[in-house]
Amino acid sequence: MSPSAGAAGAAYYVALVLPLGAACWVFPILSRCELGFGALNKTALTLAVGHLPSTVILVLMTAELARLSVRWLFPLAFMPAVLMLLWSLFTEPAFKKHGAGISTESEPDTSADNAESSE
Predict the structure, then answer these.
(1) Is the pLDDT of residue 52 over 80?
(2) Is 49:18 a contact under the CB 8 Å cutoff?
(3) DSSP state of 74
(4) Is the Cα dihedral 86, 89, 95, 98 positive or negative?
(5) For 103, left (φ over 0), alpha (ψ -120 to 50), or beta?
(6) What does pTM read for this prediction?
(7) Element containing residue 26 per DSSP (H, E)
């Protein structure tokens, strides 16, 4: 293989990081926000660029799962759930930074306020 072919192949993989990374960010965003198609993809691309190290890790984990699933059928039974759990380690800090993280605090009880306002 010539060096230029190797460089072209490497450039191809580097160029795929952003579109694949944006696709990886779409579903975590969709689980937290109600956005239209254009706004969802724009937000995903913004997060993919803004959190590039996490995006690269998400893409590499997804590519490895795809490679394992092509080679063996068994990982398809449990790896999507494991992949989402691993993704959350990298996506949650980004969502907490931007105010869309999953909070563990219980919400205040507003039933007493609602009862008073209906009287």
Answers:
(1) yes
(2) yes
(3) G
(4) negative
(5) beta
(6) 0.71
(7) helix 3-30
